[in-house]
Structures are given as C-alpha cells and as structure tokens.
Structures
1.
Amino acid sequence: MNVAVLSGGVGGARFVRGVVEVAGGESVDVVGNVGDDVEVLGLHVSPDLDSILYALAGLNDEQRGWGRAGETWEALATVRELGGEAWFGLGDKDIGLHLVRTQALRAGDPLSAVTTRLAASLGVATRLLPATDDRLRTWIDTAAGSFPFQEWFVARGHRDEVDAVRFEGEETATPASGTLEALAAADLILIAPSNPYVSVQPILAVRALHGALRGRRVPCVAVSPLIGGRAVKGPADRMLRRLAGGTSPRHVAGCYEGLVDAIVVDEADADDLDGLGDVRPIVTRTLMRDADARRRLAEVALGAVPA
Ligand code: GDP
Ligand code: CA
C-alpha cells in the first residue's frame, strides 16, 4: 500500500514516524510544510521538514520536542555575545544541516532536491518532499500587526490572537516535483495531527495540491491535533476557537472541507461528534506519548479506509 502524508513539524513528525514504522519507509511519501521556512543568520531553515527528517532518522530530541538530541549551542552563544541575531534557536548540529542546505540552494538546487539528498545522507528511506520549491511564506495578522510566521511564533511566543493567516506566494507557487505523483500513486492519503491553520493550510495553499486532494480517488483521513478540545502543545486550540468558532471534531474537520472522508479523534472528544456530515469519525486514543502509542495511532489511521 502506498501512503501519502501531509505533515507539519513536531506533531506531524511523530505521526509520520509511526506511519513509517507500521507501513514501511519505502511505501510512504511525505509532503511537508514550508510556510514556516525562515532565513536566519544567512541560513535557510526549514523547521518542519527538519523535524520530520530528524524524527525519521531517530536523531530528534524527544524531551525538548524539537531539534536534535545531544545538541550543543556554542554557535548561538557566540552569536549572542557578538550582538548577532539570536532569537531563533539553532543548535550546532542543526546549523551544520542548514549550512549544507543553504549552500545547495544558493548554487541553484531546488529545495526538493536538497531535501532528498539530506534524507539519503541521514539514511531515511521515506520520500520527504516540500509542498513547493517556490517561495511560500506564512504571515499572521494580529491586532498588533502582521508578522512573518516565525516572528509571531518564536519571537513573540504566539501570544497575539490571530485574526487571519495568509500565504505569501500562494498565487504562483507550483507543487514541488514528486508531490502530485505521490498523491496520485497513494492508496490512502493521511493528514497528520498538525496545526490545520499554520501547518496543513500552507501545503493546501499550493493550488494544484488542493486540487489533487479535492479530486482524489482514494480515501483521505485526517488525524485531529486536539485532545479533549485542547492542543497537546501550541496555539491550535486558540486558533480554532477564534477562527472556526470552536474546538470540536467538526471544527477541525471544517478546516478540510471537501478534502477528507474520515477524521481520527480522541476518546476524549467522542461525545462531541455532531455536525461532521459526510466525514466519518474514528475514535481512538491519539496521544503519541511513546513509540507504542504512535504506532497504534498510525495503525488506526492506516486501517481507516472507509467502505
Ligand atoms: P509544528 O509545525 O512543530 O507546530 O507541528 P505540527 O503542526 O505538525 O504539530 C502541532 C500540533 O500537534 C499541535 O496542535 C498539537 O496539538 C499536535 N500534537 C502534538 N502531539 C500530539 C499527539 O501526541 N497527539 C495528537 N493528536 N496531536 C498532537
Ligand atoms: Ca511548523
């Protein structure tokens, strides 16, 4: 069975790892978010792609939840000492990857080709593709002003309530080579338990990817990132409350209108399944607290092919 997964960063990476462990790395294609990409200290950082890469390579830091295990921070400490741009957490090992990526991009390689090479070097068999090789950037509109995604998320600690999310470059962004093929070859499409607004929507902002999902001939199953109406981490619940009017399964499913056939929701949300319409609810435990839990969730999602 071929599986395509749309994924953001940390929540997505955990889930993707489970899917790969259950289905086998070679049958899984991942389409990742690049709306969070940011240029820091002259480096091109792709936080969501890297979270997935590190998780699949087993290099991720489980405790911190992002970045690499055994990381050191000497370079950033030096940057701070020298009065440089130190607001964005970059570890030494992580910087090594960004150096390689940035040089290749400057030499004219598309991000998808660079990402494929990085994955191969890290021994990752899963195909990991950015949604687009074009410049696509998430902007957050708030009462305090409009901010590029990482400025709102990291520098301002996502404290400002979100009025709207926009994607710079969405009119012209074309799907990265391999992404449409991955969706076309899939027997099942999964949407990871990622933030719908700032992790999945920027993938769907690439019109052709949205079109491919809308015209799919195979089931598409989303996994909710909320448990008991609350985000495990991050601002997804606040965003849903403000932008969709609530945090029930129907509000999550509403972010994917016409794009999903089923939604995997947590047992804690099982008494709130009204208003899902044609979207079939699948109730299970969705907290990926350890390897067993993430594999169990992946099994449920992989088994969720509606009749
Ligand atoms: P980011 O790009 O690093 O912000 O990561 P994602 O968008 O991929 O994931 C963030 C979302 O993952 C948050 O809304 C969390 O609620 C969700 N999440 C994290 N861990 C879990 C988990 O174990 N189970 C579920 N269902 N959602 C999770
Ligand atoms: Ca992200």
2.
Amino acid sequence: MNKILLKTLLGHKFKTPPIWLMRQAGRYLPEYKETRKKAGSFLDLCYNPKLATEVTLQPLRRFDLDGAILFADILLIPNALGQHLEFIEGKGPSLKPIKNFSDYKNLNEVNKIHDILNPVYDAVSNIKSKLEKNITFIGFAGSPWTVSTYMIEGQGSKDHIKTKTFMLQHPEIFDKLILKIEKATVEYLSKQIVAGVDAIKIFDSWAGSLPGHYLEKYSLNPMKNIAKELKKRFPKIPLIVFPRGVGPMYEKFSKMKEFNCIAIDSNIDITWAKNNIQKNSVIQGNLDPAYLVSGGKDLVNKTIDIVEKFSTASHIFNLGHGITPNAKIENVELLIKTIKDKI
Ligand code: 1CP
C-alpha cells in the first residue's frame, strides 16, 4: 500500500507529511465554477455522480495532493431527512427551519435517507474507480450538533442563538433530533465506506459555540457514538474528528479512542498542540486559509514552522478551516512545493 495519508492516519510517520486541503474543490478553481454552472444548482451538482466525480478530481489534476475528499455537503443529511434545502447565490444555504415537535415528526424515517442519497454513493464508487492508487479517499459528514444548527436556524449563523434557545427550551425534542441525525449519519457514512472511501472525517464546524457541559453532551458524545458504531462495523477504517473552535477542550476530544486523528483549527497554538494533543492522536492542520490569499514569505515560513513543530510524530498537513474563494492558485502551488521540496 503506497497511500501515505492513509498510513499516517494509522500512525505511521513520514519525513514529508501527507497533504490535502479542506474545501480543496470549490470556487477558487475556474474549472469548478464552470462545472458548477453546467450542473445548474449546487444541489444538482452534489446529486450528479458524474459531475460530483469531476469536481472531486479537479484539484488532484492541478496539485500534488495525497488525498481526495468526496464532493458533497454536510447539509445533504437534513435534505435526505425531508427538509427543504436550497443554496442561494451569494447568500448560502436556506432550509425550512424546525420550530416545534410537529416539524420534527414530519422528518423522514432514517431508513428512507438512501432514496435521496443514492447518487452520493454512486459518486463514491465512480471516484474510487478513477483515483490513482496512491491517493487516499476521504468521505465525510457533519456532526449532529453542527447539522442541527442549520436545521433549526434555517441558514448559516454566527451565534446559533435560535439553536441554543431551542436546546434549552425544548430539551426532549432537541435530544430526539440529535439522536436522529446521529443515526442517519451512521447509515450515511456506512454506505460511503461500503462504496469505497478509505477514511471518514466528521466536521463539527460549530462546536465552539456550545457552552460549558453542553459541549460534551451535544458535540463530543454524539460524535463518539457515531465513531463507536462505525468502528464496530468497519474496524479498519480510520476516523478524523474536527471539533472547530473548542480551544483547550481540544485535549479532551483528542483522547477519544474511537478517532484516529484530530483536525485542529488555526487558533490553536502549534507548540501547545504538539505538547498536549499530538501525544494522544494523529494531528491534522492547521495553516490559516488567509495565507493562501496573501502568499509570499509568510506562507513559506508559517508552513515550514508547522511541518517542523509536528515532525516528531504523525502529522497530516492541512488548513485550519476551508480554503476561501479568493485563495490564489499560485499560493496553493507554493504551499505544496514548500512541503514536498522543503524549500
Ligand atoms: O457556491 C458553491 O459552489 C457552494 C460552495 C460550497 C462548496 C464548494 C458549499 C456550500 N459546500 C461545498 C462543498 C463542501 N462542503 C465539501 C466538499 C468539497 C471539498 O472539501 O473540497 C465539504 C467537505 C463541505 C463541508 C461543509 N459544508 C461544512 C463543514 C466544513 C466547514 O467549512 O466548516 C459546512 C459548515 C458546510 C455548510 C455549507 N455549505 C456551503 C456553504 C456556503 C456552507 C456554509 C454556510 C454557513 O455560512 O454557515
């Protein structure tokens, strides 16, 4: 097996760390914009196996990356559970929000999700058949907490006040919703694995907005349950967790034995992470995506700093969050050259 990313997830250490980038497919690539136009809407792109394959492969044709991430979205789960979803140009996702028990009751049964998600599994097998043998293929889903914020807010939010108010005022409904997302996510990820992904990542992009002990209850525990079930069904498939924004609580998340790797955001100090996290788990991260806009010496120096700090144990190079639409292609090239050629 020559998949160095997969081997690193399993605890091997290479002189040069493997690299992939969160949101490596997307609007900073002209070829993505073209395919996206051809598809019609963003959802049409996600549910078109041929075009989803095309955009998954686009960054790999341009860059010397070690991993491919399935082109899909964390909001396909709410959609498959029956929630109306559209992506509005220049504004982002828009869903019909869940406001009460009757909205919750109207969601589809978990076993119905595949009726909608089948094209995603077709995309996975299609991508698998086209990937070079040295590329690690990553499947993914959102965490129950992060997905619930979109289901309740009905759109992206910075403070998640509606979701937290719902959680505090209707704990019985909220618990049921989290459990339902958890179960749907296990089934969704299991099908991705059967269709051919090599590893799984769970994105908890909004973990940082949960207060106090709710972080454990609604972020950590549901993700742990998903990971436990996946490990029972597929013991060899490595799992990555990304509890973005949890600060010093990263240490606790990194001790979850069910996950092989923890992705850290750019706010985490790399020396702290080396001393407190890397001893518990393989580490992934954590260049700020802004360096891919600004480029130059700063990008080179920061990249070398991250690689050197994490070089004593297993490390996967990545950003601390998704690449932005204004990232420059030449800066992505410079980043990869810096890592692979050690300039
Ligand atoms: O206009 C467009 O083309 C849509 C932009 C876009 C893209 C390229 C969206 C809408 N989703 C995606 C693909 C995507 N989303 C991928 C696969 C591609 C890749 O990584 O190369 C992945 C892994 C995601 C995951 C995702 N979607 C997350 C978790 C990661 C993160 O960035 O924190 C989240 C929070 C979403 C929701 C979402 N989807 C799209 C947008 C604009 C958003 C964020 C909405 C908000 O502001 O809250």
